[in-house]
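Budget justification aside, the reviewers requested a transparent look at the raw inputs and outputs of the sequence design task funded under Objective 1. We therefore reproduce one unedited record. The lines immediately below are the structure tokens for a 165-residue chain.
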């Protein structure tokens, strides 16, 4: 696979169901290796067309396609309305395309976004599966907490000097 052939676009409403399907498939295929099935199914209930569209209306949501097939997603937006903090959302790579550098491409794309550049602090609500990947990119445990919260997320953060006011 040539990573340079991946098309990166902003989310369109027509992507909604495919994004829902990709996220659910990834949770049930990849994340299931690190988390109990009942937790995965609890997360799946919250992944709906409405929840994805709402997110896409409030953050910069990107889709990644290879040969016109949606293979990954990632989003970044303000952290609870903050002008100095941003948060990453919905970073998923199809199990069929993992370990090909697509996660790095997603993060490079998100770290080139306006919401990244303006932020002094960034937060990632990470699944257990993604923690090591994000830590290699300079994100560390928020408040030193290494255990998942009650919905299975581990919060990571990075502090930086904002480059855009």
């Amino acid at each position: 696979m040539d990573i340079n052939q991946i098309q990166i676009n902003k989310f369109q409403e027509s992507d909604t169901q495919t994004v829902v399907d990709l996220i659910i498939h990834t949770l049930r295929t990849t994340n299931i290796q690190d988390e109990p099935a009942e937790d995965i199914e609890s997360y799946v209930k919250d992944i709906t067309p409405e929840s994805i569209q709402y997110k896409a209306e409030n953050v910069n949501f990107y889709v990644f396609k290879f040969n016109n097939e949606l293979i990954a997603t990632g989003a970044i937006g303000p952290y609870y309305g903050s002008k100095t903090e941003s948060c990453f959302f919905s970073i998923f790579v199809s199990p069929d395309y993992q370990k090909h550098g697509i996660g790095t491409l997603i993060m490079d794309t998100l770290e080139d976004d306006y919401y990244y550049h303006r932020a002094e602090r960034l937060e990632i609500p990470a699944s257990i599966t993604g923690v090591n990947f994000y830590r290699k990119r300079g994100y560390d445990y928020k408040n030193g907490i290494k255990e998942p919260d009650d919905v299975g997320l581990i919060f990571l953060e990075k502090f930086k000097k904002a480059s855009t006011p």
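The chain has one domain: 3-159. The radius of gyration is 15 Å. Computational costs for records of this kind are itemized in the attached budget.
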